[in-house]
Specification:
With 219 residues, the chain is an alpha/beta fold. The chain is globular, with a radius of gyration of 17 Å. The two termini are 23 Å apart. Strands 3-2-1-4-5-7-6 form a 7-stranded mixed beta sheet, sandwiched between helices.
């Protein structure tokens, strides 16, 4: 949130890969005057998000597949976020480049992606790749963005959480499968225990295995 606010509160914010609307719900409470937009390929996700954040607009579809963008949303956003999305797509550069259709020139974009070792659980949930600050910066530049910074984050508690995920490996996959897609038992307890600790993580650290980037859309 603070990274988005670094040059002023968002006026028009787009969430690229808005999922079930959790981030936009938080954004609607933090910035009640901001106009909000979610881009999400899942129609189920859009329906659930609309129920959570009725004042937000949503586009359902794949921005890389020439999804129809209303004329008033072309080059619309002053701020954008893309959180835990790029690792799931085949062509991260293409997604970043296509998303500029929704961004005003100079729009501030904040990206978060996983770094570090890819676990069996990461592969199970569809991760194609993990990142370093350098590889994220490269993807952003290839997509036409002006990169302000990329860095590791999440130290120390996210690092500990990631080590537990990697150590549990295939057993965590089975935990999720037995829960019908949701973590159960020890996995659920671990996630609940770490959630409040994540707020204490360093925003930037050379040891962090969560990767954060800040960039500007083409001017």
């Amino acid at each position: 949130m603070k990274l988005l606010e670094a040059d002023g509160r968002p006026r028009r914010l787009v969430d690229i890969g808005s999922g079930l609307g959790d981030f936009l719900l938080i954004a609607s409470e933090r910035w009640p005057q901001a106009e909000l937009l979610g881009l999400e390929p899942s129609e189920v996700g859009v329906r659930r998000s609309q129920g959570k954040v009725p004042r937000s607009r949503f586009i359902a579809g794949d921005i890389m597949a020439d999804v129809e963008v209303p004329a008033d949303l072309e080059h619309w956003a002053t701020h954008a976020v893309c959180s835990e999305v790029l690792e799931h797509v085949d062509d991260d550069v293409a997604l970043l480049a296509a998303s500029t259709r929704l961004m005003a020139p100079g729009c501030r974009l904040v990206v978060t992606v996983p770094g570090g070792t890819m676990s069996a659980f990461d592969r199970h949930i569809g991760h194609r790749r993990h990142y370093t600050p350098t590889s994220l910066a490269t993807a952003l530049r290839l997509a036409g963005y002006e990169v302000e910074t990329t860095a590791g984050a999440g130290f120390p508690f996210f690092n500990v959480y990631r080590r537990l995920v990697i150590a549990r490996g295939e057993r965590l996959v089975e935990d999720v499968r037995s829960g019908g897609g949701a973590p159960v038992g020890a996995a659920r307890l671990a996630m609940a225990a770490f959630r409040p600790l994540f707020r204490l993580n360093a925003m930037s650290s050379p040891w962090g295995v969560q990767i954060i980037g800040v960039a500007r859309a083409p001017r």
